[in-house]
Design goal:
Largest sheet: 9 strands, mixed
Structural class: alpha+beta
Shape: globular
Strand content: 15-25%
Distance between the termini: 105 Å
Oligomer: single chain
């Protein structure tokens, strides 16, 4: 009790900082016997239903659904979350209002089968009113009203608990939309009680009671804390069943809490955002709070900077796919606002990373350790997109020019009709199509409001309805492409946790615990959960095992992949066994596993050697380990030289030849792992007990499969090195049999080349061939020039001056190279401003006509491309080109004379 009395006194004397508000929350629940855990990565792995953590409960999902054993029945944390797509899509509201964000912190406390509604409600009220000192009269609570369709009644248990501590006129009933929380279409769910706060002035409160504004999207009457009581499980058919154990899941928006405690009217006015916003204002030489559009831009940038920086720190780089595309989209939205409203033309967000690191790096250490990488990645993305923006604006200029030209033509027609019928006609609306606006959005990242703004400045409009139609069609295509339907699990026998024996065994006897049917992308398959398995489930960059399940009659059910979903190992099969209750033999594809294992161990050795050759700044940023080879992404800010690659290869192969035994430490504490010097990866979530893999001096935390001795790798060869993002390089390599195959292929190629060049000294023979080729090219070039000059002299002698036009026709019997014709065209145009040059090339199957015009004729309005298209009709062909030169080709040989006659008739 003394702890809270002293805190109460401190809070009355001084406004709390955001760091103090966060610490107070965690200290409060630690005092209530909650185990404090670190935030999980914002980028989600091993869960096909999520790309990003969008709620505090995500990292505990496997505890709610019973796939993991509960170690701590009470937990509290602050979780970094991201909401931009799907059910929780707040992106378009971010920056325009005072309380929506993409990246945000969710303060939460959880009970897994321990306390339930009573304690959850009492803890929340105590913390808000007694510790944070929020006036009780400013708080309102909501309770679930029940839902007839689901067969659920009013949550009177929660209502009666609230009634003991708050006036009944501050308790409201809410519908399923507001007061029944679900993590998805299926899974744990339950009623919830929301706590709302009214931060309006006394004058505003006297006009409209706060209870009338709860859940009405009022910016000063907002939800601050949600207490979810998990007591049901939503089945695939939509029904609800009671969970065997009741859980509590609460989430309080950290940024909103800071606004309330610090007495602000906007999240962006708190010390969570103001350091970033004020630095940004200095960069653009503006003052925050003076111009609404500039203020919105600064809020958007400050918010999006956090989202992008945390994603990169967790290992997700901007890209054109899946989670990477979402991060790129957020970053580009921020750049667009800076470009449009703050007049930035050079990268600017990268200059804010240091401020973010200073403000949040103590709580989230990855921001400090990854600061240089985050800065470089954002800088490169900004520079690239700013160029794209310029290209988009040029395209928009062309679209506007066409629209104005079209409108001008329509206006002329309207003028004629006014004279004709003597009644007023409205001027045509100068509007570009919604399709054009969508192309700008989809290709160049232009938001509709930016296109609309530029159009209005130029006296144009755009059809928003057509744009929205295109956008919805694209969303529907994306949803259809990614749609996955899963049936409910069918239980075969009791048991929840799968025992993995694949570190030590390639096959074992197993029993099926449960299965379900999955339909995705016109493909149907089954997921099987076994009581134990030798199959490695895809994780940590290593692909899942494939193999077979063999029944008692020796029937084999192929397993084409093994995945991990919410800590559950699932085996993917195209068919189900006939008898699900029998015992099976699970056998992995041993050759594929051994090849994968060699590549995984090689990735560890490569990481270790790269840190020796390039420096300890090298950190793994991603990997893919498969039977065919390995891919290793790492932080490094310049190209790896050929000499460095050779050194890396030599050192890795030297480690292989040492035949170092594997030292494996299973289920040791994180502290002991760090004592061993084991490397850990940012963006990975580790448990209390970890596994350490040591090969010589290399030591890493890893759950993958590895060789028992480095000598099993045989050899190691790098096949490529490239950049994949600013400050991130990628090496692809092969080992063992694949390395052997590479050497054999190279040897075969050398042998073939020696046979072709008929020389033991291959380099010398190739250099001689190259030089001979250069000499021959020069001779051919000299011949072409001589031939061109000869033809030019002959053609000039044949030139005819007709009606101020100099006509030159290539004789039908002159068949010459296209390169010579091209050179002649250039020379003749330079020398004859009023040139008309016609060349026919008549062949058996398809022939052509080329028309070239001098500059004076082009300036006079003649267009070779337009003329040649018309001439092409005589030869049953088509054509086009530029205003000064164009070509038509066709198959009707008898029409060539008419085509030439047409051209002469138009030009002479």
């Amino acid at each position: 009790m003394f702890f809270f009395v002293s805190l109460h006194s401190y809070f009355n004397e001084k406004t709390m900082t955001s760091a103090q508000i966060r610490k107070t929350f965690l200290d409060f629940f630690a005092n209530k016997q909650h185990h404090i855990v670190d935030s999980a990565p914002m980028v989600v792995k091993n869960d096909p239903t999520l790309m990003f953590t969008n709620a505090g409960m995500n990292q505990f999902k496997d505890l709610f659904i019973g796939h993991s054993l509960v170690k701590y029945p009470r937990i509290a944390d602050t979780q970094k979350c991201l909401r931009v797509s799907g059910k929780h899509n707040d992106l378009e509201e971010v920056g325009h209002d005072t309380y929506h964000h993409t990246m945000f912190e969710m303060l939460g406390n959880w009970s897994f089968g321990d306390y339930f509604k009573k304690e959850a409600i009492e803890y929340a009220w105590e913390l808000l009113t007694e510790v944070y000192k929020i006036p009780k009269e400013n708080l309102y609570v909501t309770v679930f009203e029940g839902d007839e369709k689901d067969g659920t009644s009013k949550d009177m248990e929660a209502y009666d608990l609230w009634k003991k501590i708050v006036s009944e006129d501050q308790i409201l009933f809410g519908n399923k939309k507001d007061n029944f929380w679900e993590m998805g279409d299926t899974g744990p769910c339950g009623p919830c009680s929301e706590i709302h706060v009214d931060i309006r002035s006394a004058e505003e409160k006297s006009k409209i009671p706060g209870r009338d504004l709860v859940n009405q999207d009022h910016p000063q009457v907002i939800e601050v804390w949600n207490l979810v009581f998990m007591q049901f499980n939503r089945m695939a058919n939509g029904s609800l069943v009671e969970l065997p154990a009741k859980h509590v899941d609460t989430g309080m928006g950290f940024e909103r809490l800071c606004m309330v405690v610090q007495g602000k009217q906007s999240n962006y006015d708190t010390d969570v955002f103001q350091p970033i916003i004020q630095h940004l204002a200095r960069l653009c030489n503006q003052t925050y709070g003076k111009d609404l559009k500039q203020d919105i831009a600064m809020r958007v940038i400050a918010d999006h900077l956090r989202a992008v920086s945390f994603a990169i720190a967790d290992g997700q780089l901007p890209s054109n796919n899946k989670a990477g595309y979402v991060i790129r989209r957020i970053l580009r939205r921020a750049v667009r606002y800076g470009y449009t409203f703050l007049n930035f033309r050079e990268p600017f967000m990268c200059q804010l990373v240091q401020i973010l690191s200073q403000e949040m790096g103590e709580q989230f250490k990855e921001l400090k350790s990854q600061q240089e990488l985050i800065t470089k990645v954002i800088a490169e993305e900004e520079a690239s997109f700013l160029k794209t923006l310029e290209s988009g604006i040029r395209l928009l200029d062309q679209i506007m020019e066409k629209a104005k030209a079209s409108a001008g033509s329509a206006t002329a027609s309207a003028d004629v009709s006014v004279v004709s019928v003597a009644e007023p006609v409205e001027a045509p609306v100068t509007q570009i199509s919604g399709h054009d606006a969508f192309v700008l959005y989809d290709t160049f990242g232009f938001p509709f409001d930016l296109t609309d703004l530029i159009l209005k400045e130029n006296g144009l409009t755009v059809s928003y309805e057509d744009f929205e139609k295109e956008l919805n069609q694209q969303k529907e295509r994306s949803r259809a492409a990614g749609a996955v339907e899963t049936d409910d699990w069918t239980t075969v026998r009791s048991g929840e946790e799968t025992s993995f024996v694949g570190y030590d065994e390639y096959s074992c006897e197993v029993k099926i615990l449960k299965y379900r049917k999955v339909s995705a992308k016109n493909k149907t398959y089954f997921q099987l959960v076994l009581d134990k398995t030798p199959f490695y489930a895809e994780s940590g960059g290593q692909v899942g095992d494939r193999g077979v399940l063999v029944d008692s009659e020796n029937n084999k059910i192929p397993v084409f992949d093994t995945k991990k979903e919410n800590n559950l190992m699932v085996h993917l099969c195209l068919e189900l066994p006939k008898n699900l209750e029998q015992t099976f033999t699970a056998q992995i594809d041993v050759d594929a596993r051994l090849a994968t294992t060699c590549n995984h161990s090689a990735a560890h050795l490569l990481h270790h050697v790269l840190r020796k050759v390039l420096g300890t700044h090298v950190e793994q940023k991603g990997s893919a380990v498969r039977p065919e080879g390995l891919r290793f992404d790492f932080s490094h800010f310049q190209k790896v030289t050929d000499e460095e690659i050779r050194n890396v290869e030599r050192m890795v192969n030297a480690e292989i030849r040492k035949c170092m035994p594997l030292v494996e430490s299973r289920n040791i504490s994180m502290d002991k792992a760090l004592e061993k010097g084991a490397l850990m990866l940012f963006g990975e979530k580790y448990g209390d007990d970890v596994r350490v893999i040591e090969l010589g001096e290399s030591a890493e935390l890893c759950g993958g499969t590895h060789v028992l001795n480095s000598g099993q790798l045989g050899s190691f060869k790098i096949i490529s090195e490239s950049a994949i993002a600013a400050g991130v390089r990628r090496i692809e390599a092969v080992t063992a049999k694949e390395a052997e195959n590479l050497w054999f292929m190279l040897q075969d190629s050398l042998k073939e080349l020696r046979e072709i060049f008929k020389s033991p000294n291959l380099k010398q023979a190739m250099m001689k061939t190259i030089q001979d080729n250069e000499d021959l090219k020069k001779q051919v070039g000299d011949f072409i020039e001589q031939r061109k000059q000869h033809l030019k002299k002959m053609l000039l002698a044949r030139a005819q001056t007709i009606n101020h036009v100099q006509l030159i026709e290539m004789p039908d019997n002159e068949h010459t190279l296209p390169e010579i014709i091209k050179g002649l065209t250039v020379d003749l145009r330079k020398e004859i401003p009023n040139l008309v040059f016609i060349v026919k090339n008549v062949q058996n199957d398809r022939s052509s006509i080329t028309l070239t015009l001098g500059d004076d004729l082009v300036k006079a309005g003649l267009n070779a491309s337009t003329l040649i298209k018309e001439a092409a009709k005589f030869i049953d062909g088509s054509g086009g080109g530029q205003p000064f030169s164009a070509t038509a080709s066709g198959t009707k040989l008898s029409g060539f004379a008419d085509a030439v006659a047409y051209l002469k008739g138009k030009l002479i």
